[in-house]
């Protein structure tokens, strides 16, 4: 018995049935025994799956044509993955490593700007491995702020972003110190030598895209549920993350990451202390829910960075996570959560400085303020 082709599965409805079945199965990640069982966390978990689906459909259906790539945002205010940085504007485009591409635009004034080509994907092997990287500190930018980058497997003069034949994505990180005052880079991407317009919808391509989209939801939710489970072993501490694991999941090579799980009572605070903030391009700390989505930074102060945090005179910093205002600087809000995950990152630090943590009663902090 032969396996039906993609077109035959689409015609019979099997494509859609398989898509829906994978999404149904994804819900098992929210019901894992080690995850919090309260209705609030479950609700956030199932909303998280719906958000992953929105991202997945843009990635594997709407913006999947590597001959006519376009940028979309894979993490933003209402769709989030793997400790998404609230200070970032993420942009993503699909590539084919056998082709060449041009990214052009204007640098803007954003604090940090990086471009990375990747291969793999959460929906396949659970990894997004770097195949090339360049940041604005190592780019030629014209006096008016304009620039071009060529993406190719063969070395190119000027700004060159390497690919290999398996490269399938470009990830751009624009990191703000202050979104109110900085201007993001304006970018466009095009395949060099492409035809004038895309072909009509290909039934087989849609079949493949829907299956990849559903697999993306299931595998992404599994990957970061595994991470959250592992962090529970050092709850309320903040040790260095496994940097190789972070990089294999698509991390920026200029970033040194810390991740943990936190759990607090209403009268408790998690104090994060850095003896001396290292020299670096950027740093921040952010609060996430259990599913590793940043908490709603539109309405709550759940992130502090190099610009917004208040340092001590000795160059160190103390950050405080609690449900209520502790009456000291650098308060991070739990935003109605009793537990979750947390991330600290140094960007471009030559020598990372590891933080220390402690859980204290809120009244203790007020007495010493």
UniProtKB/TrEMBL annotation:
Gene3D superfamilies hit by this protein = 2.60.120.1600
Q: Which SUPFAM superfamilies match?
A: VPA0735-like
Can you name the source organism?
Paraburkholderia silviterrae
- Its protein name is DUF1214 domain-containing protein
**Highest taxon listed in the record's lineage:** Bacteria
* Taxon lineage: Bacteria, Pseudomonadati, Pseudomonadota, Betaproteobacteria, Burkholderiales
Q: Which residues form the DUF1214 domain?
A: 95-172, 275-348
Which InterPro entries does the entry mention? DUF1214 (IPR010621)
């Amino acid at each position: 018995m032969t396996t039906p082709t993609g077109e035959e599965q689409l015609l019979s409805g099997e494509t859609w049935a398989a898509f829906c079945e994978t999404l149904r199965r994804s819900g098992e990640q929210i019901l894992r025994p080690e995850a919090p069982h309260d209705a609030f966390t479950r609700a956030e978990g199932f909303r998280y799956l719906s958000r992953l689906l929105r991202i997945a459909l843009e990635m594997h259906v709407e913006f999947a044509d590597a001959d006519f790539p376009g940028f979309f945002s894979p993490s933003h205010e209402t769709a989030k993955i793997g400790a998404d940085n609230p200070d970032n504007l993420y942009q993503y485009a699909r590539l084919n490593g056998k082709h060449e591409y041009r990214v052009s635009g204007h640098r803007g004034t954003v604090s940090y700007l990086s471009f990375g080509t990747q291969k793999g994907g959460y929906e396949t092997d659970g990894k997004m491995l770097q195949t090339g990287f360049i940041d604005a500190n190592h780019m030629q930018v014209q006096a008016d702020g304009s620039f071009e980058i060529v993406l190719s497997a063969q070395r190119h003069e000027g700004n060159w972003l390497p690919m290999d034949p398996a490269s399938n994505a470009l990830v751009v990180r624009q990191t703000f110190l202050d979104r109110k005052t900085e201007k993001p880079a304006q970018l466009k991407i095009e395949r060099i030598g492409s035809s004038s317009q895309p072909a009509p919808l290909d039934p087989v391509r849609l079949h493949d895209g829907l299956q990849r989209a559903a697999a993306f939801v299931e595998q992404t939710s599994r990957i970061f549920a595994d991470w959250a489970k592992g962090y529970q072993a050092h709850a309320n501490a903040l040790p260095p993350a496994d940097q190789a694991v972070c990089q294999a999941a698509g991390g920026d090579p200029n970033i040194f990451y810390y991740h943990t799980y936190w759990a607090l009572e209403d009268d408790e605070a998690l104090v994060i202390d850095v003896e001396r903030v290292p020299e670096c391009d950027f740093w921040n700390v952010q609060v996430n829910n259990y599913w590793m989505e940043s908490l709603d930074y539109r309405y709550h102060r759940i992130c502090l960075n190099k610009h917004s945090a208040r340092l001590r005179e000795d160059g160190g910093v103390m950050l405080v996570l609690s449900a209520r205002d502790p009456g000291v600087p650098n308060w991070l809000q739990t935003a109605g959560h009793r537990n979750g995950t947390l991330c600290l990152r140094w960007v471009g630090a030559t020598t990372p400085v590891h933080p220390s943590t402690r859980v204290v009663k809120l009244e203790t902090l007020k007495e010493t303020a």
